Amino acid sequence: MSKEPSEVMDLEDRDPKTLSQHLQVTWEDVIGEPNSIRSPECAWTHIWCITPCLRVWKISCAAARNFIIALTHAVIIPCTSGCGYFWSEIKVKTQAISGTTEEKKDDVLLI
Length: 111
Hints:
By secondary structure, the protein is mostly helical.
């Protein structure tokens, strides 16, 4: 079941009849960087080494993040809502005190 030599595709010359000369691009034009612009090697190290490590860290911490969110919704939010309701019911009244002392105080806070 071998193919004839005329049927085998040449991987180097993909347009043997030169039908698409206006579409000829190189690897650097599409995927890599053109020759006129070069980034330092540390940029590629960051992209190919650091970024996958950060992605693994994000995936690993997803379970802990979900646990903390569930704990917050189950415990902390109801407690703070209850405290907020409790403190919202406190009434503070201010009034002037008239006394027999010689010092006159304008306003005093009474709870």
